[in-house]
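Posting for a labmate who doesn't have an account.
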Amino acid sequence: MSAAEPIARPKPQPGPANTAGRWLSAVKPASWPKILVPALLGQALGIAASMRVSAQGVAFGLGFTVFDLIFVVLMNDWGDREVDAIKRRLFPDGCSPKTIPDGIIPARSVARVGLSFGVMAVLSSIAGAFALGSPILFGLGLGGVFLFVAYTLPPLRLNYRGGGELLEMLGVGVLLPLYNAHAQAPERWSDWSGRLFEVWPTMLGFAALSLASAIASGLSDETSDRAGGKKTFATTFGNRASRRLVEVLVPTGAVLWLVAPLVTGATVTTTMPAAVIVGLHYLRMLRASGAAGTDAFAAHGVYKQHLHRAIWYGASVHAVLLAAQALS
């Protein structure tokens, strides 16, 4: 089936009865750690740079993060509404309800509210730039919003042309942590170039983990994405190759964190526990890998659960230990 052919709409699934419940379902709170954890890591990097906690840095960093998060979640649903409808038609019992195809929220409302949160994200970065005296913060915020626009919205729509996983890695794994690090320690920006050698083992490790997450997210959508003309790593190279690359990237991230004390001012007490947590969940992910073939949705859920725990728990522990060491 090509993207140009008419799409048979799935039968609407029962959603929350009230409006608030429908919008809560639409913004998918269970997926929020994917954005909140890199923000936490960035805040910790900023605390490590400045050796203190800035309340303004927390407010402007997390404010932008939440606005950007809701913008991304809603506009991703709007951008993927046709392939989501294909998946509901092909696998009516094999995936969770979809916001637009299942009639939980109308497409026009999703787009209107999503774009409003995108504008609020940009405005919050402008406010932060003025309040913290750093125009660079606005540049980082605008860059993060633009990356997502290029990812899912016309005319670029790179998630449908290939390269979406790399954009997600840059946005989630690099720009979002840097935005929060800069919000927390804008006065240190002039010497960030001197600190990059200390920061980048952590950043590169997290970027590798973020790329693994982006590639794995396409596993459950391989068949429907291919039917809808969406070009992802999974639709291009297949399920097995996708899992193999994920299984290389995760230990790469852990190793980068492990070697950080050898090449930077970091201490092993901030990196070793995080790398160990990643490693433990990685082993569980490997045990689940064999069953996670094409359209094996339940197995995909188990596989990605262990992957997400490796990333979210590992990065959160790393962030807490970085901040604690700086403040002790």
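Reply:
Got it, the structure tokens are right above this. Confidence is low (pLDDT under 50) at residues 1-12.
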